């Protein structure tokens, strides 16, 4: 499939791929919450509509950010796995967490401020590396 981009700016092109309301949420759910199936995503707190989820999963697959396979013991269920491209988004997800905490908390005081955020604040690189390592061990067998 041929993809149309607005321009040749690397930031704009990246936003064309992962900058919509849902793409990074899906990647975040895969990396940090262990989501793998359509049902996993639908049951999440973010409440993504099924048609939007289908569209975003297809787009992420087209850009080789995720792969889709069948579960070995259930050929009816698709399982989604991040590729190296997808895993490489972990630093962006960590940075967005820090940015949101610093700049959006005043508008959303109930914003998550638990242990994971504190770990990111105290050792961002260690957190990123651990999440990537854990994901690869769990999913790239």
TrEMBL record:
Keyword field: DNA-binding, Transcription, Transcription regulation
Highest taxon, organism lineage: Bacteria
Positions of the HTH hxlR-type domain: 9-108
MF GO annotations: DNA binding
InterPro entries, alphabetized: HTH_HxlR, WH-like_DNA-bd_sf, WH_DNA-bd_sf
Listed Pfam families: HxlR
UniProt protein name: Helix-turn-helix transcriptional regulator
Originating species: Rasiella rasia
